[in-house]
Amino acid sequence: MRNKCAILFVLLVLSMLPSFQAASAAPEIQAPEEQNSTSKVASSHESLTLGELRRKYAETFKFRGPQVKQIALTFDDVPDPRFTPQVLDVLAKYHIKATFFVVGQRAVKHPGLVKRIYREGHLIGNHSYNHPLFKNRNLAYFKNQILRTEKIIYNLTGFRPKLIRPPYGEINEEQLRWVKSSGYKVINWNVDSKDWKGLNKEQVKNNILSAAGPGSIILQHAGGGVGADLSGTVQALPEVISTLRSQGYTFVDLSELLHIKGYK
Ligand code: ZN
After folding, report:
1. Confidence band for 45, pLDDT divided at 50, 70 and 90
2. pLDDT tens, 54-71?
3. Rounded to whole angstroms, how far apart are CA atoms 81 and 104?
4. What does the alpha-carbon distance between residue 110 and residue 36 come to, in Å, rounded to a whole number?
5. Protein residues with C-beta less than 5 angstroms from the ion ligand 1
6. CA separation (Å) from 120 to 24, 89, 117, 187, 261?
7. 23: pLDDT confidence band, cut at 50, 70 and 90?
8. Contact 110, 77 (CB under 8 A)
9. pLDDT of 197-245, one tens digit each?
10. Which sequence positions are flagged as catalytic?
11. Cα-to-centroid distance, 2 and ligand 1 (Å)
């Protein structure tokens, strides 16, 4: 009897996990953005892994570019006055165009920084309104997060981003179908700097250089939650750029890498 109770208790706890997970992905909380191709994306009977979704919706859901000597640097969770200007300064010094995935709630707080990103020629993508975990949310919730952020970005730049990066790289099939039918693209990554962990310059640099290759989409951050330290990202950037350039790579934004329009 005791065993049965224990099992029931474990089942009860497990059944509560998805909602707990979603609730813990609160606004402004920085959490890992793992590209886990084996994780299930939805609890429905038809749930496919991210890897399966990428294959099924290959034209809509991308994580790397063609095998050419081009690399796209991408910076998530912007704008953030502590780190975004420093990243922009380095990119300007090296004459590089990158892609920035904007969180709507942060754009409202720091509109001038979104304008600066756009003015300096970088591509802007949509990274949700307040950074929730989407995979167990319904379509209406997903659409609201994307369209609300799109409107904010449109009001600041005059353009509606076509590229969406869901927080943590997670999305379910229903949401992806809407993305496809509405003319957006979901862009994840195939090189993860893991810089959100507060890694130092050498660690960030090694994570990128050990995995980067032709057509790579590199995930970094230029914004974070309370207490985030992205100084490793900022310090590693000049050496990452110089090393990859010396290997013959050029840096392009996601629109150029993937030959798709950046805005609607
Ligand atoms: Zn993010």
Report:
1. low
2. 999 999 999 999 999 999
3. 15
4. 31
5. 76-77, 167
6. 35, 10, 5, 22, 18
7. very low
8. no
9. 999 999 999 999 999 999 999 999 999 999 999 999 999 999 999 999 9
10. 76, 221
11. 43
- Ligand 1 mean position to 164 CA, how many Å? 11
Query: What is the pTM for the complete model shown?
Result: 0.84
Cβ neighbours of residue 211 closer than 8 Å, sequence gap 6 or more: 190, 191, 192
Which of 180, 156, 154 shows the shortest CA–CA distance to 164? 180
Under DSSP, the state recorded for 50 is H
Ligand 1 mean position, distance from CA 241 (Å): 22
Residue showing tokens 């998805």: 18
Q: In this structure, are residues 162 and 262 in contact, taking their beta carbons and an 8 Å threshold?
A: yes
Q: Are 252 and 73 in contact (CB under 8 A)?
A: no
CB 189 within 8 A of CB 204: no
Tokens of 212: 């980067």
Residue with tokens 């109770």: 5
